[in-house]
Structures are given as C-alpha cells and as structure tokens.
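User: Modeling request: complex.
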Amino acid sequence: MATFGRACLILGLAVALYGIAASIHGARSGRQDWVVSGRRAVYALAGLTTAAFAVLEIAFLRSDFSFSVVATHSSTTTPLFYKMAAPWSSQEGSLLLWLFMLSIWSSLVLFLTRRRMREVAPYATAVLLGFGVFFGGLLVFMESPFDVLPIPPLEGTGLNPLLRHPSMMIHPPMLYSGYTLFAVPFAFAVGALITRRVDAEWIRSTRRFALGAWLALGIGILLGARWSYSELGWGGYWAWDPVENASLMPWLTGTAFIHSIMIQERRGMLKIWNASLVLSTGVLAILGTFLVRSGILDSIHAFGASTLGVPFVSLIAVMIAGSIALVVSRRETLRSENKLDSLLSREAVFLGNNLVLVALCAVIFFGTFFPLISEAVTGDKASVGPPWFDQYVVPLALVLVLLSGIGPLIAWRRASAAGARRNLLGPALVGVAVVVVSLALGAGSSPPTVLMFGLGAFVIAGVVQEFWRGARARRAMSDDGPLRSVVSLVRRNRRRYGGYIVHSGMALMFIGIAGSSALQHANDANLKPGQSMRSGPYDVTYVRPTSSITTTAGGRLEKVNFGSVLDVRRDGKHVTTLRPSRSFFPSTAIEDFGPVGRFFEGEATSEVGLKAGLTHDVWTAMTPDIDALKPIIDEGDKVFTKFANDPGTTPEARSQALAAILVGITENYRRSPPPTTFRVIASPLVTWLWIGAIVIVGGALIALWPTGDPARRRVRAGYAARVAQELGATSREPEPEPEPEPVRSA
Amino acid sequence: MDPSRKRRVRLVTALTIALLLAGALVYTTFSAASPERIPSQLSTAQAGQSYKLGGTVVAGSVRRTPDSMTFQVRDPKGPAKVKVSYTGSVPDPFREGREVIVTVKRDGGEFVGQRDSLVTKCPSKFQSDTQS
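Assistant: Request completed. Predicted assembly structure:
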C-alpha cells in the first residue's frame, strides 16, 4: 500500500511538470489542445493526490504501524475519531493535505473557467501546478508520508493528547483550505499580469475563491481561538503567537483585497494596488505555511526544526521577486481608468479601510519577525509580547470598525454632505447612546473598550438601517410582507447584503473581544474541599473531588481523570455547578517510569468547566498537585512489579492488576484529595465573539452561494436599477448602477 | 494648483506620514522589547528590565504555594540555573524537564515571572513524542 501511495505522488509530480510545460507551450503557441491538456494534468494531479491521501487515511484507520508516520502519530488506544484526524498531525501528512486541497481547488477553478479566460488561464494553470510541483517534490524527496518500517512496532506512540479535541478534525483542514484557496487568485493575478489582461475579468472569475479563502481561513482562525479557550487550561483565545499571527496576516490582506477589487470592478481603479495585494496575500499564505514548520521563531506551537527551511525560503524569494518584476514591468498597463472623485465617497472609505488593514498586517509582521530583525540589527535576539501588539492593534481596530460602519452608508463616487448626514445620523446617535449606557454601567475604566462598544453599535445600527430602507423600498414596489421583503431583498443582491451581515457579525465580535479582554477577572487559588475563592462577582466553592478512568472501545486504558465539583454563586444565589477536570495520559517512555507511575508522567490536558452566558462566562480549570500522590503511586509501582514478575502471572491477570491499582489510586484521590490550584475567569461578553463568528459565516455563505448565469443576472439587475430610478423608488441618492452592487465583506 | 501637482503633493504627504509612523514604531519597539536569554546569560541582568527567559525546568524544583509557584530553569545544555517565582496560568504541558519560556524581571537573586507569561514549548504537531 505504501508503495502505491508513493507511486501516486511520483506520478503526480511528473504529471504536474508535464502540465506546466503543456500550459505554457499552449499559451505561447496559441494551441488550444495543449492548454486543454495542461488543464487535464491538474485534474489528474487531483485524482492522484486523492488516492495518495486515501492510502494514508486508511493506514491510520487500520493502525498499520508499518507506516512510520502512523507508528509515530497514532496508536491502538487512540479513539477512532482522532485516528481520522491524525494524518495531519504529522509534518508529512499535513504537507500531503496541503497538496491534496490545492489540487482540488485548482481543478474546481479551472473547470469553472474552462470556457472563459482563454489567455490568462493557461498561465494560472502553470502557477498552480508550480505549487503542486513544489509540495509534490517535498513529499517525494524530503518528507515522504509513505516511509515504511522494516519491523512494524506492536503499538504506536499515539496522537498527542493535546490534539485530542474535536477541532482537530476541522481546524487544520480549514486553515489549509484558506491557504490553498488564496493560491487561486494569486495564480490568476500572475496570469493576468503576464498576458497584460488586467481588466476586472480575472477578478470576477476568482472572486468567489478569494471570498472562500477568506471564509475558510477565518473559520480556521476562529476554531483555533475556540479550541484554545475551551481546552487549554489558560482561558484566553489569542496570544499573538507567531503561528497565530502567520494565519492572521494573509487574512488581513485578503480582507483588504476583497474590498478593493470592488473598486476595480466598478471604476477600473487601484489596479496596481489590487495586484500587489493579491500577490502579497499569496506570499503571506506560503509564509504562514512555512512559519508553522520552520521553527525559526519561538512559538508555543513548537513544531521542531525541520529541513524544509531552504526550499520554502527559496519559494518565497521566487514568489516575491517574480511578483515585483511583474507589477513593475506592467505598471503602464495597470494605469487607473478613473480618478478618485471625492474624499466623501465609498471609494475613499474603502481606500481608508485598505490602508488600515495593510497597516495592521505590517505591524503584526514587524512584531512577529522582530526577534529576527532585532538579531540582525543589534545582534541581540529580543521579542515583543502581547502588550506591544495591543498597543498598536487596538487603535487601528477602532478606526477599522468605524470605517466598516461608514462604508455601507455612503454613496459611490461623490456623496453629498446632506445625504451622508441623513444616512449617518441615526446610527451615530445609537453609537453615542451605547457609549453613555456603557459609562453609566461602569465600563469607563477602559476608554478604548467603551469606544469599541459605541462603534460596534454604530455599525450594527447602520446595517439595520440599510436593511430597513431596502425592505421598505421593496415593499413600495410589491405587496410583500416585512419578512418576505427582507428575504427577497437579500436574494436579489446577496453579495451586498451578505456583506452587510458579515459587517454586523464583525462588530459583535469586536464588542466581545473588547469586553472580554478589558473587563475580565482572572483569579488563581490553591483550594481544599470546602474552601472558596472569588472572581469578579462570583464566589466559587470547591465542593468535592471526582475521579475516573477512561478506556477506549477496545477496553484499553486511555487516561486517568481527576476532577472536581464547583459550586458557583453570585450574591449568595446559586448560579451553576461546574465540573472542571484534568486528564493524565500515560507516558510512552515506558522504561523511564514505573508501570503505574507512567500514567502520571505523560501529557496532561485540562477539561474546562464552562458556563457560557450572554453577559458573562464563568470559566474554570484545575491543576491537582500530583506530587502529593507520589507515595501512593510509588507503592502501586512496587506492588505491581512484584506481582508482574511472578512467572505464574498471565497477561490478563497483569492488566487486571494494573487496572485495580489505578482504580485504587483514583479512589484514594477522592478520599483524600491533594491541594489543587484552580483558575477561575469571569469574562464578560465573550459569548458575543462566538455569536459574531456564526453571523459572519452566515453572511459570507449568503454572499458566496452560487448564482445563476452572471450575464443574465447583470441584464436583469441593470433593468431593475433603471426601473427603480425611473420610479424614484429608493430613498437614497440614485447610484450609477451598471452592475449588481458588490459585497463588502468584513 | 493643477490636479496632477495636487495629487503628487498628496502622495508625498501621505508617504511622509507613513514613514514617520513606521519610524516611531521601529524606535519604540526596540526600547520595549525583551531580550531573549538563557539562565547563564542572566548574571548581568539589570533590575527593571524584562527578559524573555528560555530553558529547561529543573527536575524536582517545582514548588506550589497557595497562590504562586516557584521553579528553577536551567540552560538547555549546561548547568547554570536560576530560580523563578511565578503567578498566573500554567500551560497544560508544563512539567519538570520541559522547555519553557517565561518573561521575567530581576528581584535580588531571584527572578519574578510576569503574570500569565509562562509558555511551554510542547512537543506538539510535527514532532514525535519520543523527542521530548
């Protein structure tokens, strides 16, 4: 099987190399048959990597430890669900996942554009296959997932317990989807620049892919944040860690891109800017993939130094040099067809939002790479922490939210002062009211937080106003009910209203972030049963300890859990009962520890006790002092070793004895629990972060959902706009509307 | 002023502002950053300056008190070690023998960890457990 998987990869590499040659030859000679053949090479690559990925997945499901990567990343005690997710916990498997997703998305975009973009597509095909060759080459020559062990071990190392969380199934694939989807607009931008076809067509053809990339990467980032919040015994969701920043940077430039392309689509402006943005997003996506693997920066996601540094740095250098050469040599063709008419226009606001997003990305880039910069400049490696990031990101985020509220309310080209005032007044009043209420409720200790609440409310009120006005205009033209008119409003212009929904979700999220980061109480205390601690308005009492042993479906011991029952009260009234616990997984270094002791020397993970609420979350985690149990564990080791060394002991009797001793230890834990450190966090409004995230996903899906034939839609929308203008049915300034209104997403 | 000249003036103004902001950012960052150190390099540490201390947690050195903990950190390859007292969150993978990074300030012969700054380099994805 391993040979088959490896053969698929080698064949895929060959097919990709052929496809590059065929596409470029076809494009240069104008021979369509070569172009078609190049495209089919992408489909073939997709088929081959799918087969290779399936081989790896099956090996993990069957616990086939003759595969070296299965032996080091899975085990028979790993639950089935996590066996399925284990392939991408390895370097090799995750690179294969990258290639697999790249080939699928490339096939999809080339299939959808097969009758269009005849000049640009062959070069885009070559670029996409170029990425295929790079990752295929890594998999074939450097990090093969199909290495076999001459003598397969009986048991594998197991999936790292820290990765045993449902998010493991979807967080990495989402991130990789985002990274690989951004390769699509990158490739088409390169094709458009090479062929000097820099009109808006390549943008229109890849818009959904850019939006899809933005959404997938966003979901990936959010799932990571949620994972951190609900699983790690820390209670935060963002730490400005290099690996987190690596995923945020392409997302920020991607956000800028999906806004600024609307200006190019409508007005033929900002072509150099857009080309640069999409090319940098592509580079940042590869940089993100690289940072995760290189170990050049200290991270809590220590991935270990690997040999991939040189190839990745070479690829990034080629991408940057090529991008700069293309943009510079094409600068004449990239000239703007129009000029900015007025600073009071949606274009100007978009431009402002772009500058803020790029500034955010630049700040984060600088902070992330500061250790390397500092070492190069002063010879001393120094780094910056979360306070540094907050200091720069908070003001920029405030401006960003403000602009995201103004954008939808202001007309294209040139807004009249009176019109702007009419559209902005209502939402601005709502924002001011929220500021006043927040101050009255005592949030004044953090001015940026109060300001963010006001700006968030401003954005949401603006979106509500747009929906209300749009629905009213529709009702004037038809006799639909209120709900129906909103639905048909959204259906007629999904890109625009989906974008507005995304904006409101973003505002909710920023409110959640501001509230939970500035106004939270985090307390740590070492308690014995019966003792209490206080966090914010909550009194938390350690009622009693709990303990249990988890076995897998096959009856094998997976982990030992020590937990607690906590009683949470506010002003003396019972709020909830929480049950945080800590799970201990056996160490795999069997020879270093005793058979019982190894259960307490391996990885330990926290199961958080969480009560989520619309105003407050109460978050709890615990760390029992295992050292206090050491005498009992040592005693268990002694008893067990004596029993197991008796020649008459059968293997069954041995495992029964081990189970009995572990049960004894857990019972002892319940009888006389060791002192335990509890961490309690009272976090206001954090739930709105997750609610906002769900709203964003909903809005983005509305904007993304495939529509009918674009040409027919354009005719229909143009007709509708003319009719609307003639009827004077809209309350806003008439907008020159040659095409459906583009979306603002984020 | 003719439009193209006006545009150029605007562009130059914008670029100047951007450069000034970038300069301010670079300047403040160099003074705000914490140098990365291992225990043997901390002998010359100045009080008041924060350092990002990296190293291995010494076996048997972890002591927990009701509201804080102390542990010793040693060079990854060497005997030099320093004592750190720390409050705040302790990451799940923290244990003796693991590599940790913690932001510290000097306080006499000891180092005081900044609250919640302790991170553990976990033998996470892409690295087999046997290496830890």
